[in-house]
Amino acid sequence: MANDEQCQDEESLRERIVRHEWEQFQQVNNEGGPANCQGNWPMFHQMRLSQFLTWPHPLLTSYADDLDQADKVGRNLLTEKYGRMMESTAPDQYHSSIAPYLPRLGLERQEQQERIIDRQVAWAKDFRERYPRLGQEMRVLRTSEDTPEATSFETYLRGELGTYSARTLDLYQSMVDRIAARGGNLTEETILATVQMNGFETLDEAEQAQDRAPEPQS
Fold first, then answer.
1. φ, ψ (nearest 5 deg) of residue 210
2. Is this model's pTM higher than 0.85 or not?
3. Taking the chain (218 residues) in consecutive chunks of 10 residues, what is each chunk's mean pLDDT?
4. Of 146, 166, 168, 165, which Cα lies nearest the Cα of 155?
5. Cα–Cα–Cα angle for 189, 194, 200, rounded to 5 degrees
6. Could you give the residue ranges of the DSSP H alpha helices within the chain?
7. Domain ranges of the chain
8. 103, 166 in Cβ contact below 8 A?
9. Which terminus of the chain is more solvent-facing, meaning fewer CB atoms within 10 Å of its CB: N or C?
């Protein structure tokens, strides 16, 4: 019974985090008006929930507190995340109009983030090599591939990690280290959660389904 209650508590916590992020996402200003993804709750819910399904309870709790604390002081972590990404995708605008308003990250903090990013980029590359069809649905991999229209996995992750409190980042790093120690792959675990929400049992099943061409219309 206690385990059932704990699972329900974690499920509720994940849903609360995704909803809180969605509320902040609605306040992100986008040049030219709201982006299409800002009106797509089902896709946002699925993609964010699949990430949080891989997180342990202390990390979930810490990040939920980050979101709450941001509200209290008038910060929007989603605005900051997308703003930080623009250091690569729109550098002139970033340095003139965005960077002055973002919390500054010290050198030690940046180095900690980059160690995590290196590990996760390697995991993402490994996943794409083993599941090339599912990999086609992912973002491009590296910051060097960024364009004003497309943000890489590396840049997105750098933007997201930059919004975490020091406590949350430490917990996140501990999770990454534990996964690495057991020979796991966080990209694989996250995408497995995604495909399971879409009705597949395994990554192999989902990969094979990408091959199936639609039946010709008579």
1. -70, -20
2. yes
3. 67 97 90 64 95 97 98 97 95 95 96 98 97 93 92 97 98 98 98 96 95 47
4. 146
5. 100
6. 2-25, 41-52, 57-73, 77-89, 91-93, 107-130, 132-135, 153-161, 166-181, 186-197, 203-209
7. 46-208
8. no
9. C
